Amino acid sequence: xxxxxxxxxxxxxxxxxxxxxxxxxxxxxxxxxxxxxxxxxxxxxxxxxxxxxxxxxxxxxxxxxxxxxxxxxxxxxxxxxxxxxxxxxxxxxxxxxxxxxxxxxxxxxxxxxxxxxxxxxxxxxxxxxxxxxxxxxxxxxxxxxxxxxxxxxxxxxxxxxxxxxxxxxxxxxxxxxxxxxxxxxxxxxxxxxxxxxxxxxxxxxxxxxxxxxxxxxxxxxxxxxxxxxxxxxxxxxxxxxxxxxxxxxxxxxxxxxxxxxxxxxxxxxxxxxxxxxxxxxxxxxxxxxxxxxxxxxxxxxxxxxxxxxxxxxxxxxxxxxxxxxxxxxxxxxxxxxxxxxxxxxxxxxxxxxxxxxxxxxxxxxxxxxxxxxxxxxxxxxxxxxxxxxxxxxxxxxxxxxxxxxxxxxxxxxxxxxxxxxxxxxxxxxxxxxxxxxxxxxxxxxxxxxxxxx
Length: 453
Ligand SMILES: Nc1ncnc2c1ncn2[C@@H]1O[C@H](COP(=O)(O)OP(=O)(O)OP(=O)(O)O)[C@@H](O)[C@H]1O
Ligand SMILES: [Mg+2]
What we know:
One of its GO terms (molecular function) is ATP binding. Helices cover 38% and strands 27% of the residues. The chain contains 14 helices and 22 strands. The strands form 4 sheets. Strands 16-15-14-17-18-13-19-20-21-22 form a 10-stranded mixed β-sheet, sandwiched between helices. Helix 4 packs parallel to helix 6. The mean pLDDT is 92.
């Protein structure tokens, strides 16, 4: 395991032993050349949010503090490591770090000799898995190893990378450059050190085992819940009452993926007998939207008929449905009037706050740039006055339209993909990076957001 300073090598090593002890009943030895036993246990326990000290007391893990071994010869020290490993019958060994070990003695030792010894005595004879940490000085990208890379069964590299297109936010990357006997899906993964070391694989759809109806999330005096506790937390409490939330979504994010983040708010409104009006993104018509709301969140046909309104350009073939509101698609002014009317309708019927979704892309396709800006502004004025919420979906290519709404927006969030993982971050409020996964534990689809730190 190689990496620059502060990339998470020690956290990974600690977790390797912790999981071994807890999940697999495998004892482990941590050989530390850089930190004292006490500090290592304290820091790792804090980072992993577990009690490693207790595991050490119970004998499940052992930390060997070898900071001061200058006086000993290298073979004595190696003998010690082998002895401790054997005495504990440890199946996992971490050397933190191989680099420090090679420099620890009066006479610097060749890594080759240390490695040979570890291999023949521990790894081969005792079936011990050794994680050898290698320090790479800041600014150097190559490992600067040599033969170790060939001898090891696996080579992993940890990196911190600042990404310009994410406005200088930092991501952490794991490169698995070698892993004998393992077929790798991809060479690069994102990871986070939030509550320990966690790899963030490409976004995966999960099955819902037992479907349940959406459970309402309570609002506060000042904010509507987004329907997702995680998203509420990221944006400091939800959508402010009377606000515009702008979501800028990269083209490689699929419909299902942004729906996962945006639609719980609609479900949360509907579950409280409140209305929602949608000008959907391309490819989604009223029937698709209605079916999705019933399927994903367990609403009934009656609820959809009375609470949902979906705007759809007239194609001449759609049968009448209470939730369908047809737009002429010819005269922008007429359509805008119709849209505003529909927005008012459910709100009047329910006598409750309402939520609106507007796809700026759809608006631009139907009516062009000028009219899109006009309708966007009118809708914003309306929700601010009436203390509702409007969510506008857009993508980076609609630059001129976005510019206008970035200034008006109370919230401005962006979704991008990186190594297959979906990332969310806020420009307004400014937030760090979060990775979005699918959470089906409630019986319906919710986003799970984990910070990348
Ligand atoms: N849960 C956490 N929350 C916040 N920060 C964390 C958390 N876990 C780790 N960090 C930060 O990440 C950094 C990386 O941890 P770690 O000590 O594992 O790096 P390292 O690669 O071993 O660095 P070095 O080469 O300097 O030993 C730590 O300095 C710590 O500040
Ligand atoms: Mg370290």
